[in-house]
Amino acid sequence: MQKKILLVPLFFCFALFGKPVPADEHQAPNIVVMLADDAGWGDFSCVGNQTVSTPAVDSLARDGVLLEQFFVQPVCAPTRAEFLTGRFHDRSGVRGVTRGQERMSPEEVTLADVFKKAGYVTGCFGKWHNGTQWPYHPLSRGFDTFYGFTEGHWGDYFNPPMQRDTTFQEGEGYITDDITTKAITFFDNQVSNSIAKPVLCYVAYNTPHSPMCVPDADWSRYAERPLRQQGPDPKKENPIFTRAALAMVENLDYNVGRMLAAIDSANTSRETIVVFFSDNGPNSLRWCGGMRGKKGSTDDGGTRSVCCIRYPGEIAPGTRVPRITAAIDLLPTLAGLAGVPCEVPKPLDGINLTAILKQDSHLKSEQKVLQTKLTKRHIVASQRGRVSIRTDRFRLDDKGKLYDMRSDIGQIHDVMKEYPEEGARLRSIADAWQHDVLDCMEQPEVERFPVGYTGAPLTELPARDGHGEGGVVQSGRAPNCSFFTKWKTTEGSLVWDVDVLNAGNYAAKVWYTCPAKDVGSVIELSCGKSRITSMISSAWDPPLNTGEDRADRGSESYAKPFKVLSIGTIALESGEAQLQLKALRIPGESVADVRRIVLYPVE
Fold this sequence. Notes:
With about 600 residues, this protein is of the alpha+beta class. About 20% of the residues lie in helices and about 25% in strands.
């Protein structure tokens, strides 16, 4: 039986005050949002990096607006949730980056929901990272089409495993190039349609996130390139990693340029709003303008991002916004710029920036009110229970120290004694956030994954969402792209804690590898009282992708292609249970390595 979703009153976030007015009464603008992964504020030439060259991102800053003090969260999934919902990630139930903690509550209305309701065709390309199973999958969060992967961390960047809507397939070429090609094809097909609707195209890249893989042409420019700037502690900086990251950023910029060229080629530049930003600070200790912290930190270095918005004819070239803004502002701002009603079930944390972006003389009174609002606002950064508060001038860090960010970007001098009232005010905000938000978040004893959601064409259960028993382990420290391995005994098993929402029959498929010498194991899939058995009768033993990295992968899992084995149809009863895969007979040294199980409802 389908679980009920709580219905709450609707709030409205119109352009700033009252009903929004479209820039073009005949055609709402297209929206293209490009999101980098682990690119720090300092990774772009438009903010002063002298080692890297990013002409495409620089052009967005030149031809549109640069939000100079733009803040995100310390890690990937929380920022992506904030962009999609306009609300701080803690409110939407996102508690982490894997094992179900990255999932947004189904009650949240997303950017795609808002624009789809307004008549847009919506597409998501790349790294989703806000849930895998329905109702968390992008196709159930307002997107009409999806190409990419739902997990947060991918281990293969050349011809990688991808998902097109509900079909698993091999990607084509380098992952960033491939994602861009698919996004361009989607955009071109829509805008060239004689009865075209406006387009929302979300291009969610996964670079320069590790592993540090980049094509030869990009790496050849960096292998011996001197680093003209370094991080705050050069002794702790890995120059090879930095070069690889900047090579990946240049490849990313090349693909941003491809997307911009496609928009220009379609003669839709003036009808298209383009946004570019990143989801957290740099993934290594490299140059970041002197800011303290990197990815994972709640300080400025971990949470400040480049953000550019281009909308020719509406946003003047070279516009700069010095006040603090954030990822939570993008949903209401894009709705405001596009003239789209933003109907959401809960109040937004984000602020609609339309009035100050458009620089319209008729909006002077609204601009003044908005500037005052931005000056007085605060932005919350939280990561694993650590809370930091940023205002236009100060940051209260997660250890309770206060810094004047106008004069101390490196957060060196604690000014709590000089500004005790401000320190106490921000401390009370942080304490209230802990008490009213973090302490009230649902923390399930067992993280369960839904099976058989109404209307879902499949349920994917990746290794990331399960756990091994009896010696079975995951292949890497980062579970997002891992697979089960060391399955050597009949006591070993692969286990997923699930919640079967609709009873019925489900065809089960397993993604596996098995060397020829180990073929012949009999495996059993069970859930409650139901059991089905099958045999691994075909060898499939491809090598790991150990030759792709430019910098050491460390404890991260290497990847390999997996083969699909249909193991039969299992009858599932509704309710909480454990789905378990075990071996009844093992003729060789091990059973198999397993990447995922996928269940398909059978009518």
